[in-house]
Every structure is written in structure tokens, then in C-alpha cells.
Amino acid sequence: MIRFYFHPTPNPAKIALFLEETGLSYEVVPVDTSKGEQHAPAFRAINPNGKVPAIVDTDGPGGREARVFDSTAILLYLARKTGKLLGEPEDRPELLSWLLFIASGLGPFSGQSVHFQFAAPEGNDYAVNRYRREAERHYQVLNDHLEGRNFIAGDSYTIADISAWGWLDRASRVRKSVDDPLAPFPHLKRLFETVDARPAVARARAVAKDHSFKKVNDEETKRALFPSNYPPAA
What we know:
Elements: E1 2-6, H1 10-22, E2 26-30, H2 41-44, E3 54-57, E4 66-69, H3 71-82, H4 92-119, H5 125-146, H6 159-168, H7 171-174, H8 186-196, H9 199-205, H10 219-225
Parallel strand pairs: 1-2
Antiparallel strand pairs: 1-3, 3-4
Helix pairs in contact: 1-3, 1-6, 1-9, 4-5, 4-6, 5-8, 6-8
Pfam families: GST_C, GST_N
Protein name: Glutathione S-transferase
Domain GST N-terminal: 1-86
């Protein structure tokens, strides 16, 4: 059984999609990051970095319980556990390269682009420009790679495509005020639409829909999501 610590944001969405694609048995454990539940000692014992997603595999290697945190690590762990969505062995170097490109580039720059356009105080024009342009540059790199290809690594759908989908799903926030944010990147748009049309996506989007996550962006939320902006308590 997989215990899946979840909040409806891009990185947990990737894991939800993998779980739905593969049919692994899992239990959702909602973590309301706007309330600061990711900072609770019980959750920090699972992910010391206080971020979602995280999983606990009650049937880990050697039959031992295993914790895994960070969406890329979880995708790799579950793909190896199931033997699914890893592509062909000869494609693994390419798969790892693009998976880490997304983990270290497209994902973080997309996240910072969203942050400075929607969450940061006004007057950060340099940061808005920096992160949005870098996110767009990563889009272009991946778009160019996808010309003449159906998927990111090899000829089949893999965890690299799942990882990209998680953040491309938020392109309208990454590229704020653009009607069709993926239009300048037609190969990337095609990949996103291909993945987004898969039946498992609808099931992944429904994960924890019955849980009432906090939606009010008040002072508690800001302190929970951006604790480094605040001095530690005396």
C-alpha cells in the first residue's frame, strides 16, 4: 500500500497521475499546505523539507516500510517498483536527462514565475521578468527537442512526460495574461494535449476532490507557504 501525501498542486499531481496510470493501490493523506500542515512534526518525519508530495510505501524494499519525498524521486522509485513508464533500457540515459531537466529547470522556474506574478508584493519587475523568461526558455528547449517526436524520451509515454505535464498544466499561470500560453510552443502543446487526453488524467484530477482544502490567501497562508519570509519566533 502507498500512503500518498497530497495537496492539489503541480508536483503532487504528477504522482496522482502515475498512480492512476499504473493502478497501484494507494491511500490519499491530504496535507493542507495553506494551513501549514506540511510543517507538523509527523509530516516532517516523512519529508524533512516540509513539502508535498511524499509517499510511504508499506511494502518497500525487503518488505520494509520506505519513505520517499520529492516528485522526481517518487516517480523514479515507483517506476522501478512497478517496472512501468520507464521506456526501453536504451532510452534511460535520455529519460534521466530530461527528467532532471524538468526537475531542476522547467519546474522550479515555472514555480517562481507563478510566485512573483501572483504571490509576491508588487514592485518586483526584475524577478517577474527573470523567472517568466527563464520558464519560457525551458519551454522552448523542450519544444525544440519534441519536433518530430511523440514523447520526450524514446517512442513511448514515460515518467518524463508525466513530470512535464504536471507543470504544463499551469502554463496559464506561468505565462499570465496570455490567452493560449502554449501556442508559441506547438510541439510542447501537442505533448501536453496528448497526455491530458489520457483517461488516467481525469482520475488524477479527481484525487481528494472531496477534501476541503483552504483557499483563502490570508496571513496564515502566507506564513505557511513562505516561512522564510518571516523571522523565526523568539
